[in-house]
Write a structure and sequence with these properties.
alpha/beta, Nucleotidyltransferase, domain 5, 2 domains, five-stranded mixed sheet, 8 helices, about 35% helix, globular
């Protein structure tokens, strides 16, 4: 029974865990993600050294040796060539053409594979989460940024240039905010942790969102969620605006792919009453006849989805190589 390490690199934190037989073995580990922004680099050595050390520590703490590990799978938020293991562009990390798989293999001495974090999350949901037994699903992760991944007829869609699902950089009409990618009006400047903090700070400058008037800046999405629970109408309206803006973009994707399941993951998905509920209302309003078979749910795996899916990606690649 082979042992794998799954790694989920986020814009804020990196989570990793040991996976055997498709299940986590022991506890997950979380460490801060060291970003190179505002610069750009093809060799984020400081972070990769830290990650390699954390993988070694997790393996030893789990009672194993590094040579017991068959492979490591890593999910990264950005444009990833999952055959070559190269991260061509990860805006929120400040990475450009990083040979991630090669760099980490050199540090660890075991096979390492990389893919877009949303594709690894989709694999996690498909094989171990809400997507088990499904063939057509759409996964959306709302964290530091936002992106999506689709599974069509049981296969994770990559796209011609490994960019399928980058909905975060589709422009929202009337939105003038500048995105970290350099474009103006991206969905990510609204429907993400970065976007919600930006919108909340704008409202505070307008003497709105009174429940957070004394909160330190920048305001966090969790603080906005707490304001919603306290009954602040501006906070509730902010989350509704985010949900409906996201819904407008997802409606086109849904019309094209006709999924039977939509899984919303990331930290923001925990706001069931104030984010997921208005998102469902919007989408079922657009597609009333889909209500009979299209479920819209929060992730049942939480942060584990990316870890499990990354490990599954490594297992698939090793199996394909005949290892």
């Amino acid at each position: 029974m082979q042992l794998f390490v799954g790694v989920d690199i986020g814009g804020t934190n990196t989570k990793l865990g040991l996976v055997r037989n498709g299940r986590l073995t022991g506890d997950e580990t979380s460490v801060p993600t060291i970003s190179e922004t505002p610069g750009r680099t093809d060799r984020p050595s400081r972070y990769l050294d830290l990650l390699a050390a954390e993988i070694r520590r997790a393996v030893l703490d789990g009672g194993f040796r590094l040579q017991d590990v068959a492979g490591v799978g890593i999910g990264v938020p950005g444009k990833v060539d999952n055959r070559a293991g190269i991260v061509h562009d990860a805006t929120n990390l400040g990475w450009l053409n990083v040979k991630l798989a090669g760099e980490m293999t050199a540090r660890l001495g075991i096979p390492v594979y990389a893919d877009h974090d949303l594709r690894t999350i989709a694999r996690g949901e498909l094989y171990a989460g809400a997507g088990q037994g499904k063939k057509d699903i759409l996964c959306v992760a709302m964290g530091t940024g936002i992106a999506a991944a689709s599974v069509t007829d049981g296969r994770v869609v990559q796209g011609a240039d490994y960019c399928a699902g980058e909905i975060g950089h589709d422009a929202v009409r009337g939105n003038t905010a500048v995105c970290a990618c350099g474009k103006v009006g991206c969905l990510e400047t609204i429907a993400s942790a970065i976007g919600i903090s930006r919108l909340a700070d704008e409202m505070l400058r307008q003497d709105r969102l009174s429940a957070l008037a004394e909160a330190p800046r920048p305001v966090t999405p969790y603080q906005v969620h707490q304001a919603c629970e306290a009954g602040d109408e501006d906070a509730i309206g902010l989350f509704r605006f985010v949900a409906e803006t996201l819904g407008e973009k997802l409606a086109t994707v849904i019309a094209l792919l006709n999924p039977e399941l939509i899984v919303i993951g990331g930290g923001l998905s925990r706001s069931e009453a104030f984010l997921l509920a208005p998102l469902r209302t919007y989408l079922y309003g657009q597609f009333p006849h889909y209500r009979a078979y299209m479920q819209i749910v929060g992730s049942t795996l939480g942060d584990s989805a990316g870890i499990l899916g990354a490990a599954h990606h490594a297992a698939e690649r090793l199996a394909a190589a005949g290892t």
